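Quick illustration, no need to memorize.
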Amino acid sequence: MIKWGIIGCGKVTEVKSGPAFNKVQGSQLVAVMRRNAELARDYASRHNVPRYYDNADSLINDTEVNAVYIATPPDSHAGYAIKVLNAGKPVYIEKPMALNYGECLKINETAERLGLQVFVAYYRRTLPGFLKIKELIEAGEIGKPRFANLQIFNYPSEDEKAGRLPWRVIPEIAGAGHFFDLASHQLDYLDFLFGPVLKVSSLVINQAGNYSAEDFVSANFLFRDNIVGSGLWSFSTSREGNRDYFEVVGEKGIIKTSTFTYEPIVLENSSGRQEFVNERPENIQFYLIEQIVRALSRDAEVVSTGTTAARTSRVMDEVVKEYYRKI
């Protein structure tokens, strides 16, 4: 039985991940930690978790806990992950894996030295709809892939405009701005489809002035076989400008969907137009957590590891590096 502890039982754990630890066969959530003891107690009570802590070391050293999920902001991922590994326990980390690529390497080096496993919450690698896209590409339904196009346009929140900044736009906590939070999922998925990025070029600026982090990113990526990825991310548009678009264009067809709104997957080629359901499970991390539990219980593959996730952090660091050299 894999008995989990969660460090940082905040919003992301309420539905996306937390309940899945008790739904997966051979898995149980036995302890949670939050710095606010009352909030930790409330979470434990609502989710039927036996124990709660307001100190991470207490949870890490709980003898019943044999695997730990870190769901705090990125600035604390590396510190907590290395503590968990040094305690002899495998670790599952929210994305992005850490504040930057260098911290990812430190986590992976510690895990390798101790012979332990690291997993990261890039769960699109396990979702049925996103697996369907990979299946269609590998089946040759669009011929050889030529390029992938990503677009995310969002409007700024009232808090951001008023200077009440969420941690996701504070680089010291998030690593960068919303780009790290949202594009990390997309870039990791492109890595899943096409392998590691070979070359990066980018334009990164701040247009609205609501915070110091970037709010506009344009980037291009080169993959093996001369497959190209391109993306536009804007976080200061109007509400009417909101957009979530993802397409893969091949020599013989196109696949279209979205990344976060789970629009139907559309395939268009010489055979016509087909639509496929883009399923969004209630607990969206369920399938990845199920893989992890199988891997920890016996020899099984997990598609999102410290190694794959570090590649995504390397690419994101490369995209924004010139911007952060200037501010």
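The CA atoms of residues 94 and 121 lie 5 Å apart.
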